[in-house]
Predict the structure.
Amino acid sequence: MPMPEPLAIVRAVHFAACLAALGTAAFMLLVGRLDGLDRQFRRFAAAALAVALLSGVLWFALVAARILALPVSEALGDGGLISVVTDTRFGRIAIIRLALVVLAAAALALPRGRWPAVGATTALTGAIAWTGHAGAGTGLLGAVHLISDVAHLIAASLWLGGLPAFASLLVWSRGAPAPGDLAARVTRRFSLLAIGCVLALLTSGIINSAVLLGWPTDLLASAYGRVLVLKLALFAAMLGLAAFNRYRLTSRLPGRGALDALAGTTLVETVLGLGILVLVGILGTLAPASHLHKPTAAINPDAAFVHIHTEVVMADLTIDPGYAGTSAAIIRLWHEDYAPFAADRVQLALDPTFSGAAGIRHDARQLPDGTWVIENLRIQSPGVWTARVIIERKGTATVLDAPIVITQCSNECR
Ligand code: HEM
């Protein structure tokens, strides 16, 4: 499994914070007003919102730095930041979600703010769908994927996001006047809610998988699929624990032993859920397996090909033939849904990852069909080269980079 890059970890922290804010706000409605506990829930939800805000800003900074091809520190001071906010879907959604964090925090501060808090945190968490793979879809399939992903995020929040509040209620109820009654009542309610969430997660998860996996075999054949399989394994473990809670522990409430055991297994469930969110953080940074099956044109078997995937633009780069010597480079640019990506200027830079060869950089020429080409590309030596596709659009440059292997031309190909 690929080592999580900083963006994956920041996404995971942000998901956990948003899920916890919505899960806790909804849990407050589920249990009704419990004076001793209400303030504790509000504080926890507010803390989750603060983490959502900080991790959201960091997430934005990391994406902006990638778009502007600058180190994070420079990107934050760069004039191009404005265009990232105004010209990209990611930027516009980020501003809306920032406002929702403020709204949710304000609602949590109001004595009668529980429903508005649930409303604002639902919008905040649901809007995550527009920042990921689901947000790039078009047409009917795109709409189904988007709705499914929103449902997925909300179901994950009401179950996984509600677990910390549920565990703290179980611990708190030990000191309550009729500890067992409250715990048993809330456990029955939460367990019913969780069953509904599991069904929603499974349904929406299968829809998401069907859209983002090309074939079922991709579950093992692609990095994206293997991360998803790990996620499903953790999900199965959570289901097992939830079933144990429901069928072995709930029936033994209000027994003190069952209460303590339930608090313990709920915390284990929460840790498994956090593991799932780390995997989801990684999934969002990988090219969906379905993309790897769709080279956008027939590829000459002698060519070198790489599909480069970012949140903003994707590129298919073909160097034909893929041998040292004289070749042509063909570059096709796409939005994530394979809608053509318009650019003002495209350059290709090839830098050797080995010594003894010089880097090259060329301007590409655009063909009437939108493809960008470079003829007579002289590649000195075989080896692994770092290809950088530099895309200029409305004064903002985006750089996509990936390794590409140039082989030695054998006798037959001379
Ligand atoms: C406790 C259980 C689960 C939790 C907490 C969870 C959480 C999440 C979250 C937070 C996202 C990110 C949404 C986004 O970026 O737009 C996501 C995406 C996804 N989930 Fe789940 N999920 C769970 C179960 C499942 C199950 C059971 C499946 C499959 C049957 C599944 C398949 C997916 C897929 C394919 C995506 C899309 C990832 C992408 O955008 O590349 N999930 N999940």
